[in-house]
Amino acid sequence: MQPQSLNIASIGKGFGADDVLKGIDLSIRPGEFLSLVGMSGCGKSTLLRIIAGLETADRGTVSIGSRDVTDVDPSDRNLAMVFQSYALYPHMTVRDNIATPLRMRRLSVWSRLPLIGRMIANAEMLREIDASVKEAADVLQIGHLLDRRPAQLSGGQRQRVALARALVRSPSAFLMDEPLSNLDAKLRAHMRGELTNLHSRLGATFIYVTHDQIEAMTMSDRIALMSEGRIEQLGTPDELYRRPSTLTVARFIGTPSINLLPVELDASGEIVLFGQKLGITARNAWPGPATLGIRAEDVFPAADGIEASLVRTETQGADRFVTFNLTCDPSISIVMRQRVGDDLGADADGNVRLAFSKEGVHLFGSDEKRRDITVLEQVPA
Amino acid sequence: MARRGLFFVAPAVLLMLAIYIIPMVVLAVFSVTDYQLGALSTSFIGLDNFRKAFSDPVFLRALWNTVLYALIVIPAGVVLALGVALLVYNRKRSRGFWEIAYFLPVTATLVAMATVFQFLLHPSLGPVNAAIFLAGLTAIPKDLHEAVRLDGAKNPIDRFLTVTLPMLGPTMMFVIVTTSISAFKVFETVAVLTKGRSGSEVLLFALYLEGFEYSNTGYAAALTLIFLAIVLVLSIGQTVHMDRKVHY
């Protein structure tokens, strides 16, 4: 099966009085790895379930390739889904779990019956199914587990069985609902790599729901960041990191979280931070309050910077995250990322002066939307 | 310490002894004698009562009738109860009402229970089984129903055979064991309807006739032991066999 595109047009869905999805438009390219990411309750899982057909949208359409599947039963959409709970059939062996999608599609009702089914079924077909199951199991390196029951497997092994069950029948697209969230941190990082490999190996369309921005950032071709039933921004991981279109996106993407500072725009559009002009102007912006976002790696100690005091240092191997409180407003903290050997620039009392690279800042107006900026030429003092 | 422990278990042990153990021992003693109710003397006759039972056409007919009754009532009871439970479970809006209608008599006070006891515990019509199945259905993870739909199960029968029925295994075991035991205890139906005429005796009715109508206490005791053995074998056999198959 060729990888298929998916088209989602003005999908809306409400539960009771709440609108969970407020008109979602999204085109997923054939073979793309697209992540739906957002806080819990943003509607990403509901959207995935509508794509799968497990939930009905109040309005809008879902198409796979050129086929409108809005009113098609999930069993006829040829999509495979990996559930957060894996949803393995506990009464079946791993082999039977993986074979179920094939049996449902290729065998008649009678030959699927327990016991007598195997006698009626076409022997050639059974051999084919067996071979496909082995192949899928080999891809995920679970060939030796085929005769076990799910209860006898570890979390990581169950995860692999769920993936094998999904890929055994080459579906139009894979839907994944937080598949890694039940694994421990180390295994999760490992499975991220394996999923990426699997995606490039199969060349299939993946739609991946997660609340973990690291998963989305590391695996996706594109990310749709959702918030309150809308797609806040759709773009590559790099675009979301370097040009977040709203404050919500800026807050959500990146570890540690982006530093946010309250600033004012003066009449000429120049950014003023605690009464100090920064030499950056906003284009197409009006005077008033705004928010300045600065990534931790754009912060560095400098003699002419803002005064701050050291709060704590978290070392992460080669890098460290250093947290400061601003002296002029201790409720505002700033995180700086630097190499472990680098100079903190702090005096004996832990006081430092911090500056940031002007090209790296993100400006958001009072409507929380991104504003373009121009860095002014340094005026010689 | 040990003595204090004994003190705490004593009430339960005494009750067990008085209600179950001692009567069973007395029963066992009666079963190897030719004692008749009111008789002044009695003598030990070994296993003669048991030998007599298995050559007694009335007893053998009663045994067969009981087995036949159980074979009809168990599948019918299970299927009816499961059917009702599935119907209630699949209601979207009226499910709350039906759940209450079926659960209320099961969970109501003892006094209220007593009046509907007969109906409730009826092996094939009793809503107890339906309520148990309903609880079993509710316990099946929703994910599994969804997974099987995506795996290509188009119709409800496919979904039922692939997920619902196997996942109901433990519930099914419980219902079958309790239903078969109550089926083997059938008595009133026969006592009221036919009084065992035209060859319609069942185990408990034959036993009742021997013990209380004909006063053959010794023989009736032997029949009772046979009945107890059957029920015991049934429960143990089903539990051991099905335990292996239904628990994952």
TrEMBL record, chain A:
Pfam families xref list: ABC_tran
Keywords tagged on the record: ATP-binding, Cell inner membrane, Cell membrane, Membrane, Nucleotide-binding, Sugar transport, Transport
Location of this chain's protein in the cell: Cell inner membrane
Protein family: Belongs to the ABC transporter superfamily.
InterPro entries in alphabetical order: AAA+_ATPase (IPR003593), ABC_transporter-like_ATP-bd (IPR003439), ABC_transporter-like_CS (IPR017871), ABC_transpr_MalK-like (IPR015855), ABC_transpr_MalK/UgpC-like (IPR047641), Mo/tungstate-bd_C_term_dom (IPR008995), P-loop_NTPase (IPR027417)
Family annotation (PROSITE patterns): ABC_TRANSPORTER_1 (PS00211), ABC_TRANSPORTER_2 (PS50893)
Record's protein name: Multiple sugar transport system ATP-binding protein
The keyword Secreted is assigned to this record: no
Gene3D superfamilies associated with the record: 2.40.50.100, P-loop containing nucleotide triphosphate hydrolases
Residues annotated as domain ABC transporter: 6-253
GO annotation (BP), single: carbohydrate transport
Membrane topology: Peripheral membrane protein
Molecular functions (GO terms): ABC-type transporter activity; ATP binding; ATP hydrolysis activity
Chief site of localization: membrane
Domain of life: Bacteria
UniProt-listed PANTHER family: MALTODEXTRIN IMPORT ATP-BINDING PROTEIN MSMX (PTHR43875), OSMOPROTECTIVE COMPOUNDS UPTAKE ATP-BINDING PROTEIN GGTA (PTHR43875:SF1)
CC per GO annotation: ATP-binding cassette (ABC) transporter complex, substrate-binding subunit-containing
Species in which this protein is naturally found: Rhizobium soli
